[in-house]
Design goal:
- It is a single chain.
- The protein has 316 residues and is α/β, with parallel strands linked by helices.
- It contains 13 helices and 8 strands.
- Helices cover 41% and strands 11% of the residues.
């Protein structure tokens, strides 16, 4: 299987049910795996991606499917504006594949991987604050906070202390330099199932790219932009992302907890803006997980847009 193989492809296509005349937004174009399958079903695809390095993949798709495809460089938060600018009037589906791609991890110069030496960057676009800016400039408290919140690193304070001490002597510039410092600060954890720097690198990547904020904004934009009957499919890879998607769909389908007699809540009068098309979350089968390691933690949640007005802001 290709290292860029789209995860849960059959399940995503089932949830989206693309066909001739449909307009689908692939909000995470990447190497174009979902897009190609959707185009092959006869639909038109508006692809979004903030990563400038996807352009060769987009050019190849445009060459293979002339007139059916366009790429717009924007993060999730620009989804509604991108659709408005496309000139299309009906949106039949949106798919998100959340998180870093194997394509980005494989490029050492992007700075995502603690296994490859490269500049400490981690930006999915070529704009904004880098991971080096964060580890060299943030105070102890904010650093420890993101390591704990985004990486679930139990020794977040110890790692932040080690970073502040070392950066006085020499700023961090390279991925392997930071990975070695984290490994030393955590005592190496020999025999641990994951590398000691895994959680810290994940936390930095999420912070650099505001991944959770962008996910919330993207879900809101999809809600506001999908036509009645339009289909939403979201593939996540870790619990932070999945909790946001689950909470969004739980609320928007009208299934949020209603409080108790000791803590009553106001009666919700808004109509559900989605109905679930997949109950709970679907996971990859054994065959796909064996062939594609990225599929092991993947979860798909899917829903269909109703004709109700959008609910608006998602709670942080």
């Amino acid at each position: 299987m290709s290292p860029h193989a789209p995860v849960l492809l059959a399940e995503v296509l089932e949830a989206l049910a693309p066909g001739p005349g449909d307009v689908i937004i692939d909000a995470t174009f990447g190497a174009g795996g979902y897009t190609r399958a959707i185009l092959a079903a006869g639909a038109t695809v508006i692809a979004l991606d903030r990563d400038p390095t996807v352009r060769p993949h987009a050019d190849a798709v445009a060459n293979d499917f002339p007139g059916q495809f366009r790429l717009i460089r924007t993060p999730f938060s620009g989804l509604a504006e991108a659709f408005a600018d496309s000139g299309e009037t009906k949106l039949d589906g949106v798919v998100f594949d959340i998180g870093v791609s194997s394509m980005q991890l494989d490029q050492a110069e992007r700075g995502f991987s603690f296994m490859r030496d490269g500049p400490l960057d981690m930006r999915m676009s070529d704009e904004g604050e880098t991971a080096a800016d964060i580890v060299n400039g943030w105070d102890h408290g904010p650093l420890a906070h993101i390591f704990k919140l985004y990486g679930d690193e139990r020794q977040s304070g110890r790692v932040a202390t080690a970073i502040l001490r070392r950066r006085v002597e020499k700023p961090f510039e390279r991925t392997l330099d930071l990975a070695a410092l984290v490994e030393k600060a955590l005592g190496g954890r020999r025999g641990a199932p994951i590398h000691p720097a895994t959680r810290v690198f994940q936390a930095l990547r999420i912070a650099v790219n505001d991944e959770l904020g962008e996910l919330r904004a993207g879900l809101e934009a999809a809600e506001a932009t999908l036509s009645p009957g339009g289909r939403l499919a979201v593939v996540t890879f870790h619990s932070l992302e999945d909790r946001i998607v689950k909470a969004f769909l739980t609320e928007r389908t009208g299934n949020a907890p209603g409080g108790s007699r000791h803590a009553p809540v106001a009666i919700e009068t808004r109509k559900p803006s989605f109905t679930l098309s997949v109950k709970g979350a679907r996971e990859a089968g054994e065959e796909e997980r064996a062939a594609n390691p990225r599929a092991r933690s993947a979860r798909l949640r899917a829903a269909v847009r109703t004709d109700a007005p959008p609910w608006g802001r998602i709670a942080a």
